[in-house]
Amino acid sequence: MIVTKEGAIKYFGENYEKEFPDGFSGIEYMWNKHDVDNAEIILGLKPLSSGVFWIIFDDYDPNNYNFLMFNIPCDHNGNPKNTHTIELNSKSGKTYNHKKLWESEVKNNNKHQLYNKRDYDYYPRGRVEISRNLATIYLNPNIKNPDFIETVKKGFGLFDSSIHEVRIIADGSDHYKCFLDRR
Length: 183
Prior knowledge:
The chain is of the alpha+beta class. Helix content is 22%, strand content 20%. The termini are far apart.
């Protein structure tokens, strides 16, 4: 992860100067302590990642949701850094397949028991792809709103200074359909 003043301002807005240990602002702490390994803990920054996500909410309350994401830390070209713990199970071998991932990591996992009785395509979902300093968020059109998009950007570290643009593609195809489309 590259932590720059511009990246911190972009991430924190005007609050990027808030104080952290030793009286440093968050960004100064990172520069002076060279502590990029703990950037997520200290600054709340996630490493740049591709991967898949679900926005989990009760049938008709999108204001009360959980964000379920499976990150694949990567470089600015989308090459996995091999620090992920779950096998990359897509045809390309570079990312996750929603259905396979739901079956292997969510369906029978007590950690996800509040929603794991549903099929993988019940909740609105999407994916993040990284290529040539460009991030693309593909998602169900029902969740193309600023709050969800901000959550996705933060969750996948898309405020990394190596990312020049984030494209949002609301994909209304059958591939991303969910319960909201079947009412």
